[in-house]
Amino acid sequence: ELKPTYIKSMQLNGEDMTYDAPNYAWTKVITTTADNTPVSIVAKGAEYSKATGTEDAAAVVKTMNYTLADGKMTDAATAGSVNIPTAGTYTITVKVGDKSDLTYSIVSGDQTTPKPTISNTIGMFSKDGSTLYATFTKVSEGVYTCTYDLSNLYDMRFYFIGDDIDDKRVCYGSVPNSQFSLYKEEDDSNRQGWDIWFNDDAKSMESATITVDLNTMTWKYE
What is the pLDDT of residues 154-179, one digit of tens each? Predict the structure, then answer.
C-alpha cells in the first residue's frame, strides 16, 4: 500500500527551518563557533493511507530521520549528521526534487538576506566592513554626503565602494588624535588610522548630515 507522507516542518539541530514555497525548499541560517560542528536534519510530517483517507485529523504523525552525504538525504532509522569544517555563518538549504527526493547544500554566509545595493560611492560601515550603516551621494568631485540615523556612534570606517558592496577599494579612518581628519589606509589588514566615531552631542540628535571630502581629507557631521 502506498502511504504518502506530507512534510509539515523541518528542523536543523532541533531548530525550525523556514519553508521557501516558490523554490520548494527549506532554509536555515546558522552561525557556528567551533570547527567541525555537526548538523543534522529531521522532518516531521503526516502519513496518509487508505485507512486515513485525506483527512488531516486522521493522518499519522511521523518523524523522519536522514543520513547526510554528498548533498543527498537518505531515509534512516536515526538521524545522521555532517560536519561543517570551519566556524562561521552558513545557509543550509533542503530542496525537494521532482520525485520528492531531498538534497541539501551548505553555503558560506547568509544567503537569505539580499545584499545592500551600493556602487561607486562612499559607504559608512562597521569597522570590520560587515555592516553598512549609510550610503553617501556624490555632490561634487571628491565630496560625498548622506543623512545618517545615528543608529551606531562608534567603531566605524568609511569605504570607497567600486562595482558592488563586496568591492571595497579604499578604507578610511581618522588620523590618530585628529578625529575629523581622514586617514587613507594603505593596507586594510594593518591599519594605522583610528576608527570613526561620533561625539556625545550626537546622542541627542535624531539624525545627522555627514560630509566626506576626499579633496581636503576631512569629514564632519551636523
Answer: 999 999 999 999 999 999 999 999 99
Q: What is the pLDDT of residue 189?
A: 87
CA-CA-CA-CA torsion sign (125, 126, 128, 130): negative
Residue identified by cell 546622542 is 203
Q: Which domains does the chain have, with CATH numbers?
A: 5-108 (2.60.40), 121-221 (no CATH)
- Of all residues in the chain, what percent carry a pLDDT higher than 90? 74
The sign of the dihedral angle between the CA atoms of 21, 25, 29, 30 is: positive
Task: Report the alpha-carbon distance of residue 167 to residue 120 in Å, rounded.
Answer: 9
Distance CA 136, CA 143 (A): 9
CA angle 170, 171, 173 (to 5 degrees): 145
Burial grade of 179 (CB within 10 A; 0-12, 13-18, 19 or more)? middle
How far apart CA 30 and CA 13 sit, in angstroms, is 10
> What are the pLDDT digits (tens) for 38-80?
999 999 887 776 666 655 666 778 899 999 999 999 999 999 9
Residue 62 CB neighbour total at 10 angstroms? 15
- Sign of torsion, CA 23 84 40 114? negative
- The percent helix, strand, coil of the chain (3-state, each to 5) is 5, 55, 40
